Amino acid sequence: MSKLWGGRFTKKTDQLVEEYTASITFDKELAEEDVQGSLAHVTMLGKQGILPDADVETIKDGLHRVLQRIKRGDWEYEIADEDIHMNIEKALIDDVGPVGGKLHTGRSRNDQVATDMHLYLRKRVVEFVDLLHKLQSALLEQAKANLDTIVPGYTHLQRAQPILFAHHLMAYVSMFGRDAERLQDSYKRVNMLPLGAGALAGTTFPIDRHFVAKQLGFDRVYENSLDAVSDRDFILEFLSHASIIMMHLSRLSEELILWSSTEFRFVELDDAFCTGSSIMPQKKNPDVPELVRGKTGRVYGNLIGLLTVLKSLPLAYNKDMQEDKEGMFDTVRTLQGALQLFAPMIATMKVNKDIMRQAVNQDFSNATDIADFLVGKGLPFRQAHEVIGKTVLYCIQQGKYLLDLTLEEFKQFSPLFDDRIYAVLQPENVVNARNVYGGTATPQVSEAISRAQVELEATAAWVTEFAEKSR
Ligand code: ARG
To answer: Model's pTM, two decimal places?
Structure first.
């Protein structure tokens, strides 16, 4: 059979043009969604009396057989048939005969491809919320196991104030929680039906778009037919959310890489998640976080790529828009890989509590607390800051830490010091003094963990509900 659109043409398509314009090599990934959309469309054509019931049944049976063949791998696509939509239509006509040609009644590939993309992405949105949930759970479990682990907290990568390692991990639980929330929010914009927009203006057939939407589980129908076929915002939104998730993963990656260096030795990643060197036998490299850090680049690239494709693009469909797919598939695969690896890597990570604790003993991260102590004695904070600055300088010159100073040495800097400062300076007390909502004190972190647990249960329930809806 010649091309589905061959009627108007007198010449064969140039071979290179055929190859250049075809999308089947990558949009074959949409086969299932394409058949799903076609089944709903043809059912509606039957209900509306646009096609006789017998034809509808023949087409549906044929579509099921074509999908089975695709799934079995007992199918070969033709570049000449351009994309998944025409390849499936061709396979259908081969299977059921000319009646298969009735499927495309009242439909265009423009509203068809948009529908496929919506069906595809809404599944991914639910899967990614699930993957984020798994990673959050792994971080939360490590936080629970490290409620008594004190570690230096940093600003400017310089030791700042001691914190609970659990508190540090819970920061990531919050970050990935916002990511999940963003994806959940985007669901309502992914879950919209473009089909029925036709090529751009609607269709002359008395179709029922709301019936199609209902069959496919879409909550809304696009209001405007031009917008329906031109809109790729929902993909951009997904690519933005994916970029932010990768950015968060890259920050965690960077910390894991630093923490597992010999200079830090705060954590050790499990052998199963590291690789060796072909020349240096002693090496154990944190390749997974390094690659995730690196792959963040391509995920940003896919976002910028599609933003640029869409920039200044006139309404409605333009072939440029076929460029929405490869970047999206690439981002889906990249993000899936990263999240799937991170959850077990965090779960199996060994935390060197003693080394973290030793690090806290060897720094001035308790300096703020004796400044606060002097403030408690009535000294204005600015003056207290000056006093402690001088005390720290003295320590550095003497090769001592604050806890090594005698009370007499302290008193050289202010008569307000008394022996209660030794308790104030203990890292446990420094941590627990920050007993404000969201702070690092043990009771606050415990409560943060409990609250996160409740949220994670709600997310799990959302995933169960929406996994069903988005199938
Ligand atoms: N393969 C095309 C795409 O991915 C499908 C839509 C083609 N529509 C058209 N009028 N050529 O965008």
So the answer is: 0.95
